[in-house]
User: What shape does this take?
Amino acid sequence: MILFALSAFLVAVSGVPGLFLHTGGGKASAWLLGLGALAGLAAAGLVLCGNAPPSVALHSTPLGTMGLLRLDPIGAFFLVPVLLLSTCDAVFALGYWGDQHESARRLRLLFGITTAFMVLLVAASHALTFLLAWEGMAVTAFFLVIAEDRDPETRRAGWIYLVSTHSGTLCLFAAFGLAATGNFLFLPWTPGLAGTTRGTAAFLLFLVGFGLKAGIFPLHFWLPPAHAAAPSHVSSLMSGILIKMGILGLVRLLCLVPDPPLWWGALLVALGALSGLLGVAFALAQHDLKRLLAYHSIENIGIILLGLGLGTLGKSTGHPVIQLLGFAGALLHVLNHSLFKGLLFLGAGSVVMATGSRDIERAGGLARAIPFTAGAFLAGSWAICGLPPLNGFVSEWLIYLAAFHGLAFAHSAWPVLALGALAMIGALAAACFAKVFGVVFLGQPRTPQAAGAVESPRSMLVPMGVLAACCAALGVAPVAVAPALARAAGAAAGLPGPASLGSLAHFGILTAIALPMLAAAALAWAWSRKGSVPRAALPTWDCGYAAASPRIQYTASSFADGLVSAMRYVLLPQVRWLRVRGLFPSPRSYRSHVPDPVLDRVAEPSLGFAARGLAALHFFQSGQLPLYLLYILITLVALLVWMVA
Amino acid sequence: MTDSTLVRSLHYLLHILTALLLPPLLPGLINKVKAVAAGRQGPPVLQLYYDLAKLARKRAVFSSTTTWVFLAGPVAVVAAGLVASLLVPFGHSPSPVNFEGDMILFAYLFGLARFATVVSALDTGSSFEGMGAAREVTFSVLTEPALFLGFAALAKASGSLSLSGMLASPGFAITRATGPFILVLAGWMIVFLTENSRIPVDDPNTHLELTMIHEVMVLDHSGRPLALVLYGASLKLLVLGALIVGPLLPRTSDPWLDWAGFYAAMGLLAVAVGLVESATARFRMNRVPQFLVAGLLATAFAFFLLQA
Assistant: This one.
């Protein structure tokens, strides 16, 4: 526990030296974060390898002898991505958000504090510590989002985030109140409680509270604007780990309920399929690189929910195999997603810095100008599409396995829904990332800014390289994390005894398959490289059209058009298009935009309506001090009367 | 014991040799059938072998727009195809590598090949190749679930979660699973035609870039990379074909006879594809999704029949 406390402390103060140092504050903060991460990873490693019992801190007799903080296998498993990714982000920030930014010092300080709150959150074992850490994380993250608060768009995004996160916390307060049995420790629910009205209400409130943070569709609406507006290393932190804290909450809830009703798992699977499919569908229609990645976070939360839902279904119906595979897949996907989405957001930051724009239609041909960023982004795209032999495949494989085992259920509608949804999500994600990578990095530069792009400094490339290497290592040799995963998944599934994940999923074979594949690829590469003409100034074959210009390249909109127009009844794109007419047509324009269905069509209009109604209360807020003193006096008198009476 | 190990390794050796050497024969057969059906003499059956030998000696030309990604496409297609060929059983001899959940890896290996081809096409910066790439990924959104729902139906029927168990021939006894089984194979036939860019989805012989799907994506490849592309495509024909013909084959008492049966069945499949291509025209591009939805519905319906 001393390691854990040291880690939390070092992370929390990482931004403090930077407040006083003239230069080098970024380096100091990265070093402190890195040291804290080492200590925390050691603590997590001890718990996950089984050499240490769950360590307990902050004993307090009135609050419960279990302690307020308890680093168990689930918490330790979530701690790993929290520390790994935040360190990478802090190093990335050295080059990306240096001292020339006026908000650099403030941002470093808050970055450390946000991370420290997350470190505490994963170990919270009491409603008090959980909610404190949760609120601390949410509020400090708000200040991270509005780093560029001179931009009205950023302020709007921050505002939406703040409103939604507080609505979520409100639900959590109510839910903890309903679920508490005597005290507020995280103790198993009494059997039978889950089936009662109180249990149902608590579950639904937890789902809304955690779902708002995780970005489950339709509670995802704060996510795309906030991720787009925040600095890229902050987006990386938020998408990679902050939204996973919602998943952590759900896992904590599910592992405490011994007898979840069947509909819990079914609801989770249905929400997972909805989030997954709509997340990737809306991602396809985006032109803003970071908004697109944000929608992919919603998709991946959907995949995680599919795993959790299948695991819960297994628990309700008494199938330990499905239970274990579902939870293991979900947990591993949490780790994997934090690695590859963190990497992709850092890559996006590098692209934004090189070209000065988040619009993918204005990029192009960047693989020549910024080859390392391109390589890292390709690795991230590859992993997020779940393609072997990178890590995304391993977790999706586990969830698929859970679904296939689930076919043996009497009611196998939910597993088969999960199967179909996963397959379609996989194909759509591959389409989307082929679009992003192809349009941003391949072909010819579409604008002078893209043509003049310069590779990012080494401090930005190294974190990307580390994350890409982690993706590859976990994909080729998943057996390395299998024992830790089995322990965490066994705890999350609530299975007694050591979990036998290895006998259910043959991780070793994935390695045995990946190595010959890499060998075959290396052979084919060497063979086809030989005897090729050195790159001469030969243009691409454009069917005899000699005056090819970068502007006639296929754009992201045209690439996605087939799928977007096929899904137009869901996406409801707004297209403004002036048709080309006549023999000598004048210049015409085409403009398409896909608004967010919840934020732009439901939440903002209805909230605007509510705000107008509440404006009536301004009557009481006159801004005159005597009046406010009068309010206080009236309240005091009322309280006095109530207490005496 | 050593005897059976020896026999098994001989089977595996034959499996690997088949995957390495047989594929280029299939397009040759298809083209020959098409030529005969049209009353032409047509190219020799071994034409693709000659083409590959010729391309291996030619020098490749790269457009100045391309990067290393351009070469990675064909390389990934061949590597993924070869690994996938290890997972699928050829006829009744079990595949060299089989484990629980190998069908998921199988499907995703083709996903990998598709992603690599598409990215490699976009690397040229040509809008024609972009068009082909967009069509390829669009259609895959419908074929991928069809493939998986077919796996789900077969897993439900056979109780096995490995390709070798799932595709084991049910024999000719009529059971509850026979109807769904036919539906799965019908759905997969559509997947097979789409994934291999055959008529009625795509025409491998078309000469108009605007209407192509697969062919246009590899327009800029030449020399050895093109040889890899052609070989990879024929490998896909063999591997996905094995998925369909495997379960249809009656099991004989002699494993070597089973191999002969498998080769005959692959030949028949090639003839069938040739006949389909001679008899039908390709669909208009906007009609293709309807055809694919039919495949998806067939496999989904197969699953629901088993469920009932």
The beta strands of chain A are 55-57, 69-71, 574-577, 590-593. The mean pLDDT of chain A is 89. The longest strand of chain A covers residues 574-577. Chain A touches chain B through 85 residues (CB under 8 Å).
